[in-house]
Structure formats: structure tokens, C-alpha cells
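Supplementary Methods, section 5.1.

A reviewer requested that the exact input to the structure prediction be made available. We therefore reproduce it here, unchanged from the version used in the analyses.
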Amino acid sequence: MDYSKTAAGVLTGVGGEENVRSLVHCATRLRFVLKDESKANEAAVKGVPGVVTVARAGGQYQVVIGNDVPEVYAEIGKISKFGGGQDDAAVDEGPKGNLFNRFIKMISSIFTPLLWALAGTGLLKAFLAAAVTFGWIGTDNSTYAVLNALSDGLINFLPMALAFTAARYFKANEFTAFAIAAALLYPTITPLVGAEGLTFFGIPFTMVTYVSSVIPIIVIVWLQSHAEKFLYAKLPGAVRRFVTPMIVVLIAVPIVFVVIGPISAILSGALGNGIGWVFENAPWAGGAIMGGFWQVFVIFGLHWGLVPLFTLEYQTTGQILLIGPVFAAVLAQAAAVAGVWVRARNKNLKSLAAPATLSGFLAGITEPAIYGINLPLKRPFAFGIVGGVIGGALISLGGVFSTAFVVPSGLALPALFGNGNMVMLVIGLAVAIAVPFLLTAIVGFREPEETAAPAAATAAASGNDVVVLSPLDGTVVPLSETPDAAFAEGSLGDGVAIKPRSGAVYAPFDGVIAAAFPTGHAIGLRHADGAELLIHIGIDTVKLAGEHFDVKVTTGQDVKAGDLLVEFDGDAIERAGYDLTTPVIITNGELYPSLADAASGPLAHGEPLFTAVSVETALAK
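The structure derived from this sequence is encoded cell-by-cell as follows.
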């Protein structure tokens, strides 16, 4: 995937930066809150290379990317004020939505930054537990002590990590939140758990454990955010920066010990006991629900509402019954897409099914399988649900549980080893995999018709070279003289650079606007024969956020050679400290691998700049 192209295409497809209220990402999705969803071109977004699909849920416009979503998110940050690690939740959130949607958004935002670290250390914990179960390592030596600490540390000190992410979400001071969480887990506090006769200035309270806890820190950081706003408004400027955290910590920690902690312990205990009751009295029902509906929850992004339940169950009981049947749900969808891989005759379908199968089985990432294949084909998705229901019910009937927080996948199976009836686990997983695979491979599905090759690909095969006219009045210089390494080294494509002498950019050929950046600093075009061209006006000029630029075209608009695309104030841009050297490059070099007849020296717009040589022509030579 070309992350920069994917980022630009997605941002343009959702209506541009000006249509975005906020942007965050989770494990596999870009989660936009748009000002006007009607301005988003769903077909265009789905057509961007690297995008799996689009989903609307929880008040968000969700663009499913897969494992590479952090890289695409970072690239969006380079061309807009969103993404790139900024606290985007702080940017014009707009209407709040209903309470449920707000809860899902909160949980997603707070847990997402921790997810892969939790999954990675949880996987280590799973492997360590399996090693102990099979007698490969003992528990009475220093090696085990070190491995146990590094795999168990994060989940034990989870409140400290949540303090940071919750503070970012609620816009509270991160280090004050950390100080609160540190007090909850302080070495002299943890031995007081269950002790009798505890008081705080005469107020009696019961000390509960905060190891691996979730609710207390999230609630207190929310209260912290409101307290800080009040104190910052009331305290004198000379003392507010150190008096505010002092007061907040002094009040917040006792509130947790006296009120929030005991109440959350009661709620967590009731919830944990409720889950235990279901899996003790009707385990098949709990397993069937989790195994059957987990992937449905994933489609709508609602699975985030269940993540806290995993940690709450772990805190209460030291095990996670809920997660066992989720393995069946994940592997069932992976098996269904494997059935598509085996049965399909459509070459495009086969090429999609292969990596989706591996991603599902090994990493537990099923979005490519669900959105790209199973859901559009309908039957494989339904077969996957059937496998998840039966497999989940069997696994839960065996009382199988995990002692670590993991992302359910083939690699994470050791988390279940030795925990419950292993025969039922093996049978449940076998059924979860075999049923959807066989149903898909035998019963089949309606395959889509083979589609014609994309215009860009056929263009290369036909040997159509493309003459690119100069889009600017100026002086042509080698691309290597561009004061930006990515352009100068040709990393983004081959071409030339122009030092402008006027403030207008014109269409260099007949074609379509592939990307009209709202900041005006760049324009992407596609020739009718398939060549893709980027005109990047100046270096780092995206930082001007559209100032001194006036874009005259929109994405998807047809243009003729010589049409005005952008006007810019070159003098103002240079006074602002930016270099106006403008790279003009071919971005799909795999189809147009070389240039010919490149101009040099002074040139007016409309005069030949270079010829993009197609693969066919290059091979013929």
C-alpha cells in the first residue's frame, strides 16, 4: 500500500479536510466524524487502493483499512490538521450523538492506543502459560519470574495506562491522571485490601483492589477534567499550575478510595458473577451468542463495548470466559474465506481470498475477509456465523477460558491451553473451522463476473505514451535539485521540477482531477490513457493550511489541457519562508517507468514538459 496515496484519496473522498469534525483510529479503521455525511463519496472512498470498505456506525464514518491503519492515519496528519498523533478528539466534535454512541466512542478512544500492547504482552503470557502447562519451564526460578513480570506487567498496572489515554480523551492533564493512578497501586496501599477498620479523617471505607481495574480510573479522570477547568478559571495565574494538580490529587484519590472504588467493586463483582452464572448454568447459550454475534458487532464497530467486560471479568475472577467463543467466531470467518479461496474461479476473488485467509487465521484480523469477500458474497458470511455459533457453544460447554487478554487468533491459541476441557476446545475449534469451510466450498456462492482490467493497466498494455505539458510558467530544473529528499531521490515518482515565475497552475493534459487537495498545495491528475501526475506547489506548503492558495477545481472534475487549476500568491508564500520549487512527477511508475524528451530551462505553460513512456514502449525498445 502507498500510504500517502491512500491517505490523500480517503481524505478527498470524505469531502476534504473542511468536512471533517474529528478523526481517530482503532485497530483497523479510520473513524471520522463528518460535518455532512452527504458530501462523502462512498464509491470514491471504497475505490481508494488500500481501503477495504466503509461502514457507518456509532455516529462515525468508518473507513476500514486493516493492519496498516496507523500508517495511513499518520499520512493524513501530513496533509491536514487531523491524524499524525494529534488529539483529534479536541477538534470541533460537533453534535454528541446519543448516549450509546458516545459510550462506544469513548471506549474505542481510550482502549485503542493500548490494544496492540495489551495483545502483544497477553500473547507472551499465553505462551508462558502453555510452557508451564506442558512442563517446559518451572515456576520456581528467576527466568519464569522475569518472563511473568514482562508479560503480566501491563495488565496489572492497566489503570496507569488508562490514566493517560482517558486524560487525552477527556482533555485532562495526563501526568496528574498518572499521579492518581499511581496512588491507587502504591505498594503500601495494596496490602490494605480487605483490611478492617480503615478510615480517612474519620470517614470509614473499604479498600478494594485496583490491579487491572478499569472503571475507577476512567470515572475519576472524567471528574478530574471538570475540576481542572474550574480551578484554572478560579485560581490566580501565578499558582494555578502547581496548586491545581495538588488540589485535584488531594481530593480525587480519597474520592476513589471512599466512594468510586467500593461502588465499582460491587458493580464489577455483580457483572463478573453474572457472566459466571451464565457460563455455569447455560454455557452453550453464552458461547453461542459470543461466537455467533461477535463478527456482527465488529461490522458495526460495537465490539468495543465488550472490551471492558473482558478486563472486568479478568479483574474479578482472574480469567476470561467471554473470550473463548470469540476464537470460534474469528476462525470461522477465516475458514469461510478459505472456502472461497478453494472454490472460486474468479481470479480477482482468489487473489483477495488468499491474504484474507492468512490474516484471519494467523492475526485474527477478519475485516479484509468480512468486508472484501464474505459479506458481499452473503453465503460465506452466514456460514461463518453458523460455525461460530456451534464452535462457541462447544468451547463454552467445556468451560474453556483465557488467563490473558489476547486478540483471538491462531497465534493466540496458547492462551486457552490447559484452561478448561481441552477436548471440547479442540472439537469446538474443529467444528468452527470445518463447518463454514465445507459449506462454502461445497454449497458455494454466486461469484461476481470477471471485470475488465482497469484503465490504467490497459493503457500500459496498449503502449500509449503520454505527453505532459508544462502546468506552470517558470524554469525547469532536474528533480534532484528539489530541496526535499523524498522528491529529489525519486521516492515519490520520476519527473522534473519547475521554479515558477507566475502564480497559476494549468492542466497539463486532458483528463480528470484525481485529487484536489483543499489546502491547494497539490493537485493530482489522471490522463485518459492511465498516467497519474502529481503537481506539488512548493515544499512543505501544506503547513500553510490553504493560505495564499485558491483551488479552482474539484476531485472528479474533467479538465482539458490549459484549464486553470490553482492560483497562488508566490510572493506571499516565499515571504512566509517556503521554497516554491514545484515537483511535477508521474506517480504510477510501474506503468510509466521512464521519461523522454524532458525540457529544461525557461518554459511557458502549455509547452511540452516531458513524455511519460509506457511499459509497452519501454519493453519494445
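The CA atoms of residues 125 and 149 lie 9 Å apart. These observations are discussed further in the main text.
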